[in-house]
């Protein structure tokens, strides 16, 4: 009877193909496992191992009673398909996570780049502008000091070029003593009387000194660009293990020119001092603007401020 014919009875070719496929899969699996193991791909290795139950069932289909062959085959295919779907979803999720992390990392690096350019080069460019304006004025007035100003202008431009070429590490090499002298000269050239109390020997940690140098630069840049100061006081002191750097000027004008918020560049420096358990604050009173940085001497987190 046709109804009693075996389900696989008329499909000898299908049986042969299943058997051949089984042999090929068993023959190729060891090599695949070895390759995945050698390339350290645990995810792929686990996927290959997941095929073992299916491979174990496949030979049984050839010798299984015909009435059970199709149901078992359908079950095996369904299980494998569901497992493949789950693994594909996991791979897609992992890929999405990698993309998101890469975008976050790129954004962090972009912000760090902008901050480093501002903190390291902003002061030097402002100083060059001041010197260039002086040279222009002295040339018109035939002032003999023009040669001296040109020499300083050239030195500043060369220094800025060197900083630009290696600004990723320039912030770490800043010397507080050198920056104090430089700021004093630049402010004086701009017509700002500058009084310095204390010296760089108050700071024992070179990394902290470099961080305070950036604060000093930013404070001087703000005076040059956003104030009408005639007097600036710079105080550097150490008391009870805490270093304090304070810049005060008498030319506070509220918001900076162009509507720039008062703390735009200072907020960046505040995060740098956080690596030293330090703080950066700025206040104004009676036409005076005060910028104060504080950090303990004992915290030695060398270089980390430049990576935050």
Automatic annotation (TrEMBL):
Keywords: Kinase, Membrane, Transferase, Transmembrane, Transmembrane helix, Two-component regulatory system. Residues 112-172 form the Signal transduction histidine kinase subgroup 3 dimerisation and phosphoacceptor domain. Signal peptide: none annotated. The chain crosses the membrane at residues 12-33, 45-64. Pfam families: HisKA_3. InterPro entries: HATPase_C_sf (IPR036890), Sensor_HK_TwoCompSys (IPR050482), Sig_transdc_His_kin_sub3_dim/P (IPR011712). The keyword Transmembrane helix applies. GO terms for molecular function: kinase activity. The keyword Kinase applies. This is Sensor histidine kinase. It comes from Streptomyces eurythermus. The lineage of its organism: Bacteria, Bacillati, Actinomycetota, Actinomycetes, Kitasatosporales.
């Amino acid at each position: 009877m046709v109804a009693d014919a075996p389900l696989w009875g008329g499909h000898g070719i299908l049986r042969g193909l299943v058997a051949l496929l089984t042999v090929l899969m068993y023959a190729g699996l060891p090599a695949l496992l070895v390759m995945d193991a050698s390339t350290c791909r645990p995810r792929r290795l686990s996927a290959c191992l997941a095929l073992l139950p299916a491979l174990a069932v496949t030979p049984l289909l050839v010798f299984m009673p015909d009435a059970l062959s199709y149901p078992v085959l359908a079950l095996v295919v369904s299980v494998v398909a569901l497992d493949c779907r789950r693994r594909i979803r996991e791979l897609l999720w992992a890929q999405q996570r990698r993309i998101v992390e890469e975008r976050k990392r790129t954004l962090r690096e972009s912000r760090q780049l902008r901050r480093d350019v501002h903190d390291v080069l902003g002061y030097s460019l402002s100083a060059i502008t001041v010197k260039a304006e002086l040279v222009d004025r002295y040339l018109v007035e035939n002032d003999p000091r023009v040669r001296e100003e040109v020499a300083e202008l050239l030195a500043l431009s060369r220094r800025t070029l060197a900083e630009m070429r290696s600004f990723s590490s320039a912030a770490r090499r800043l010397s507080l003593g050198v920056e104090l002298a430089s700021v004093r000269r630049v402010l004086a050239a701009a017509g700002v009387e500058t009084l310095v109390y204390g010296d760089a020997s108050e700071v024992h940690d070179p990394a902290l000194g470099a961080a305070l140098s950036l604060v000093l630069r930013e404070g001087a840049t703000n005076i040059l660009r956003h104030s009408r100061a005639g007097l600036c006081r710079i105080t550097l002191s150490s008391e009870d293990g805490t270093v304090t750097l304070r810049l005060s000027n008498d030319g506070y004008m509220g918001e900076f020119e162009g509507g720039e918020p008062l703390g735009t560049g200072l907020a960046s420096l505040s995060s740098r001092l956080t690596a030293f358990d330090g703080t950066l604050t700025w206040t104004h009173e009676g036409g005076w603007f005060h910028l104060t940085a504080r950090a303990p001497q004992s915290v030695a987190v060398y270089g980390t401020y430049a990576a935050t």
